[in-house]
Description:
Elements: H1 7-14, E1 19-24, E2 30-35, E3 38-39, E4 44-48, H2 53-60, E5 63-69, E6 77-88, H3 90-104, H4 107-111, H5 116-122, E7 125-138, H6 139-146, H7 150-153
Antiparallel strand pairs: 1-2, 1-5, 3-4, 4-7, 5-6, 6-7
Amino acid sequence: MASLSDSLVRHLLEGRYIASLATKAPDGSAHMVAVWYWFDGAHIYIATSTRTRKVRNLQSTPKISLMIDSRDPAASCGINIVGTAQILTGEPSRKWNGRVHAKYLSDAALADPRVGPVFASWDDVTIQITPTSVIAWDMREADRQVFGSAFESNPTYLLPLER
């Protein structure tokens, strides 16, 4: 079990990665989507729309799983966070959504009337995640401990991922 203060966890939460968010659909299946996020040291914030399936799912079952994976074969690491979600609206939502957008969009994109204002109006709520557990993995450490650094010394062992 990891914690929010672990260096790998903080690296991934503070970095610009794409996360996978899972919520529970009405039929009991997992609904999973890619999301942008912002981390304030205690909570994770996701800008979204009230019209999305994830928000509707969270209104009935406020439990989530969030995975962030470095998606780098040579330095594969990631975290899985389980937690509870709260839907923020109004001014708090606009504040957090602005931070999420600024993390992933350039200043030029935010200033472009075709982009910045569209994101601001499109994402009308924020999912605030309160983590209850954190699991982290680092395949570089597994390589050293289990494979005798075989992957580190032979980088061609791992095939490149599609982009």
